[in-house]
Specification:
By secondary structure, the chain is an alpha/beta fold. It has a single domain, classed as Protein-Tyrosine Phosphatase, Chain A (Alpha-Beta Complex). It has 6 helices and 5 strands; from the N terminus they run ββαβαβαβααα. Strands 1-2-5-3-4 form a 5-stranded mixed β-sheet, with helices on both faces. Helix 2 links the parallel strand 3 and strand 4. It starts with a strand and ends with a helix.
Length: about 140
């Protein structure tokens, strides 16, 4: 597991495994967001299986599947809601962390400067800069 902090309260990681759950809890995360659609992964890593493990460890689990190239406003709104509802630090995952980084940046449009949102993901090679115009548009309301 490779946890990559984008802010003090939000980190991303590539796909988590069942054996990662205790380390996620020990790292202080209170909410885990799954941004990976079930169709991309085997049954033992799909949302329902991971939900049981994450909730069993005492953390909240949110499913918000982001399909590559088909990110929706509903995804952005769901990510924002999950972040806002979290009682502590959030860990979001997808295949590489890129989609979780992008949807976080869009969910925080208007809350943080666009350059800060882009650079937070860029430090890990995530492709957030291509969404600059959309971040700016969302920030304006």
């Amino acid at each position: 597991m490779d946890i990559r902090p984008l802010s003090d309260t939000y980190s991303v990681t590539p796909q988590i495994e069942p054996e990662d759950i205790e380390a996620i809890k020990a790292a202080g995360f209170t909410t885990v967001i799954c941004n990976r659609p079930d169709g991309e992964i085997p049954p033992e890593l799909q949302a329902d299986a991971m939900r049981g493990l994450v909730e069993g460890a005492g953390m909240a689990f949110v499913v918000n599947p982001v399909i590559g190239g088909a990110l929706t406003q509903e995804n952005v709104d769901a990510q924002r809601s999950a972040i806002d509802a979290a009682s502590g630090p959030v860990l979001a995952y997808c295949a590489s962390g890129n989609r979780s980084s992008i949807v976080w940046a869009l969910a925080n449009a208007g809350r943080k400067p666009t350059d800060e949102l882009i650079s937070a993901g860029a430090q890990y090679g995530y492709q957030v800069a291509q969404f600059r115009e959309l971040i700016d548009r969302l920030a304006k309301g």
